[in-house]
Structures are given as C-alpha cells and as structure tokens.
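Section 5.1 Outputs to date
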Amino acid sequence: MDIRSQVSMVFHLDKCIGCHTCSVACKNIWTDRRGAEYMWWNNVETKPGTGYPTKWEDQDIYKGGWEKNGDSVSLKGAGKLKGIKNIFHNPHLPVLEDYYVPWAYKYQDLFTAPEGDDQPTARAVSLITGEPMEIKSGPNWDDDLSGTPDYARKDVNFKDLSAAEQESMFQLERMTFHYLPRICNHCLNPACVASCPSGALYKRGEDGVVLINQDRCRAWRMCITACPYKKSYFNWNTGKSEKCILCYPRLESGQAPACMHSCVGRIRYLGVMLYNAEKIHAVANASDEDLLDSQMDIYVDPFDPAVIRSAQFNGIADSTITAAQNSPVYKFVKKWKIALPLHPEFRTLPNLFYVPPMLPAMASVDTEGVYETTSDSLWAGIEKSRLPMKYLASLFSAGDEDKVRNVLKKLLAVKIHRRAETVGDLNEKEIKDALKQVNMTGDEANSIFRLTSLATFEERFVIPPAHREESIEMLESTADAKGEMGFGFKEKPTRGL
C-alpha cells in the first residue's frame, strides 16, 4: 500500500439555503482584483439549471475530464497531441460570455445628470471595457430564471429523461429545485494537472490541495479545457490561470476555509481521508459500472493497523492519522455511505462529496385518473420524490439509480427514527422496518442526526496540524548542505569590532 492523506469535503444539500454567503466570502478574499471580476471560485447553482459557466456539465461541448480508451484513459480535450493542435485555436475553451461579462453601475449619473423630466438611471457598464452594456447573464442566473426554457429545461442531466418526464417537472404543482454549491474538487486524478504544458499545476503531497504556480504559468489555458468542472479560470489582466486554493493559508493555521467558516446553513464539512495511491490508475480505468464503487474503495480505514504503518512509513504524522480517524468526511463517505461525488464519470476522482437532497413528495394520478394526495405514512416513500431518480443519479452516481436510492432510504430512515424518538407518534413496526431495510441501528441513526443537525464547529472541521517545524528543518538542512543560511540567504562574513 502507498497510503497518502487528502483533505476532503462534504456538502449536505438538504441544508443549503442558497444564500451565497460562501460565494461572497470567497470573492472578498481571493478574487476582488482586476482580471478576476468574473471568477467565482465558490459558486452556488440552482438545479435544475445550466450552471456556471453555461452547460459546464456537457463535455460534448467543453471536452473536459478523462475518457476510457480500452485499458487506459486519456484527456478528452487536452494532452500533448491535442494541446499542440489547439494551441492557437481552442474551440472547446469557454469564452467570457459562457460565464458572464462582469459589470458595475454608473451610480454617479444619479447625481450628475442634468435636470429633466425623466428619472435618471445608473447604466450598467462593463468592468472590462468600461463601455455601457446590456446585461444578459450573471453568475447565479439560474436562481431567477431556472424555470424558463433557456435554463432549467436545458439542464444536461435531463438527457436520459423522456420528454414527458421533463415536461412534468415544470407543471406548477410539481415544480421543485435544490441548490448545488461548487468549489474545486482537488481531485486524486486531476485532469488540470495532467494537461498543463508548463507544469504549473501541481498537487501538494502533504494534503492533496491542487495549486497553480503563478511563476510557471504561461497562459496556455489547457487546464481550463481539461477541468470538467470548469474550476480553473484565466485572469485576462495578468495572463495567468487561477483557481480555488482551498484557503490553504487558513488550513495551515488551523482555520476552516472562508466559504466553510461563513456557511449559514452549516452544510460544509472538512476532514482528512487516507487513500491508497497505488490504486489510482486502476480506479481511473475502471469500467463504467464499477467506477463509483472503485473510487469509494480507494479510501482506506484509518483505524487499520496496516494502513497506519504504511501511512507512518510515508511520513504522515500521527496527528494527521488521528485527524483522519475523527474526520466527518470519512463518516459520511465510508462509514455511513450517504455522500457521493459529483459526476464521477469524469474520472478525475473528486474529493468533494455531496449528501443528495431529500426532495418533497409529489401527488400522483393513477391509471383511472384519480388524483392521489395521501400516503400510508407521515412521509411518502422516496419513489414519490418530485425529482426523478434518474436526474439525481446523473448528478451523483454516473447514472446508477440504486446508489442514490440507497442513500435516500438511509436519510429517510434517520428521519423516521428521530420522529419516533422526539414525538413518538409512529408505530414500532414502521420504525423497525425503515432501519432494517438499510441495515442501520438506532445508535447509527442518532450519530448521523448528530453530525447533520447538532455538530459543533470542531466536529464539522477536523483540520490536522500543519507541522511547520518540519518545513523549517527541511529548509535548514538544505541550507546547511549548500553552506547557506536558512531560506537560501548567503551567510555574511563576521566583521571585527
């Protein structure tokens, strides 16, 4: 085994209220500069919807991620040969309009406009050209327009739904939506790193955070094409690519990333996962049917003595192993198996997992035309969810409906158990059947409820110490070998008094 550590995340979609506080916190810290006006390293999308940039999930357009070719995988739209062919013209690169043209308002016109019969207005002007412009889209356009033909109805995840199934979702009594916050997934098999001709992108060995070396970036923009989640951006002012850095300066000082610290709904969890790096190639090459299970199997048990020995052999600190044992991400993903990756079919092995939303139940019309609005239980079964299971499976399980169905059954079992615990108005058989169906105990249901609803800050974010002393020792030993002082400065000769 080649055990390594990876900082991973879980977003609980049942708790997201779409307030965009996370996006604003990230924007204020990292992308408030010229050239980064259109960048949203953290954005919240409304689903169904086309997302940001528009239709980012459609790899027939953008050619992101990996594709399986026999016994190996290759980048869809980047790589050595494809990169050379598209070096001066890349038809798969999103343009600014696919994101949005950033704008501000000329509020000064409200004060300086000459006297007249009309009310003066503050015209929208482009933050790039400074010229007046017509606003056509924005970073969260789906929030207001998701029900229109141009947005929700063009959601890529409808591809496997029949026209009747799609249309039924937009009938007034059946309409539903949920929020989907997104950041860089800091993947185990990052397509952006593999695509960069100048080697500017790299994955940190100590925690798996994917970063861009600004000194080495040469603006090839292959990383933007290669990333299927479109979480690498080009700064048109500096000529460099930029992306989410998972607030690593905050992590190194024991603080949660800004988007997670500011989350109003407390939907975000962060912790260490240990994984077997020897399996990355095999997992990325797995068949479509086995891909999701293979990715879940790459993460190992941090309590296993063999895993601990291998981790220690690789230089992983005991404090990091302890953090992995207390990780909320490990519990959601491996122990309880209720969190799934977003679009695993892209084969990047993302480290951001989602607990799917429990959507409202929907009334139905039977074969005789009777409109049925009742259910046998307090909660209708997940089969009556307003959003077809195919849609959620397209998002989180590469089309495997059983995977999503099992997660939703577990979440429903927790609700039934907690209702019995707090209100006591359900019959005992219904409670036992719900738990037995998903092989869950009452204690486990309580643990899931605790971490979902009552978790403290320290329980949601288990951040390992950065061990700065090791980096200092490394710098000092390197300097001694070169006859220099620490940090590469030449030692000055001692002067006499």
